[in-house]
Specification:
- This protein is α/β, with parallel strands linked by helices.
- It folds into 2 domains: 133 residues, 3-Layer(aba) Sandwich (Rossmann fold), CATH 3.40.50.1000; 55 residues, no CATH class.
- The chain contains 8 helices and 6 strands.
- It has a 6-stranded parallel β-sheet with strand order 3-2-1-4-5-6, sandwiched between helices.
- Strand 2, helix 5 and strand 3 form a beta-alpha-beta unit.
- Helix 6 packs parallel to helix 7.
- The protein is globular.
- The termini are close together.
- The model has no long low-confidence stretch (mean pLDDT 92).
């Protein structure tokens, strides 16, 4: 089976780190309270920030967040197990699109923790649905409801890994909402592709 896997919020718990640091940046650094909608995944969509504010946040915290974020619970064990079982693992992430330096930092983190187990890497990818179709992905795992909805409309089985306040998605034949890597492993083993 070919499994596409997002990075932030799926392998690394960086989305929670972004949420913590963006709250601090808004209240402490900017000295304002400009949150508009906590359900948005991207920090820049959750606050009423100018482009200058967004750039300031990234300059101050982006690298720190990438380096500090932990692995999601169970992800290392499950991914290694899926690999041992003969599945092809393809990393499809937007990381590296804003800052190419994040690719090298991430590759080193994966290598240090013996998680450089992916068959292919797609960095800086916004149109994940296109990559899924191109690579003939059997199932894609992502934490963005927008990306999951778009991918599932291409008739690619998609797991929406929901771990934070967000918009709800209606499950269907191609879209499943799950909450942890144990559930993901069970679902992958149970589906008949």
């Amino acid at each position: 089976m070919k499994i596409g896997i997002d990075l932030d919020g799926v392998i690394f718990d960086s989305e929670k780190e972004f949420r913590v640091y963006s709250e601090l940046y808004d209240m402490v650094d900017l000295k304002q309270n400009s949150k508009t909608d906590n359900r948005n995944l991207k920090f820049q969509d959750r606050f009423n920030w100018t482009q200058e504010n967004i750039d300031g946040f990234l300059k101050k915290y982006h690298k720190q967040i990438i380096v500090e974020s932990n692995y999601m619970p169970g992800v290392k064990r499950i991914l290694k197990l899926l690999k041992e079982e003969g599945n092809s693992l393809i990393l499809i992430t937007a990381r590296g699109g804003l800052n190419k330096d994040m690719i090298k930092i991430t590759e080193e983190r994966l290598k240090q923790s013996e998680m450089d187990i992916f068959d292919k890497y797609y960095w800086g990818t916004e149109n994940k649905d296109e990559v899924c179709v191109k690579e003939n992905i059997d199932i894609m795992i992502d934490d963005s409801y927008e990306k999951c909805e778009k991918i599932s409309k291409k008739k690619v089985k998609t797991i929406y890994l929901k771990d934070a306040p967000s918009f709800d998605l209606q499950e269907n034949e191609y879209l499943k909402v799950l909450y942890n890597w144990g559930e993901i492993y069970r679902y992958i083993k149970e589906i008949d592709i």
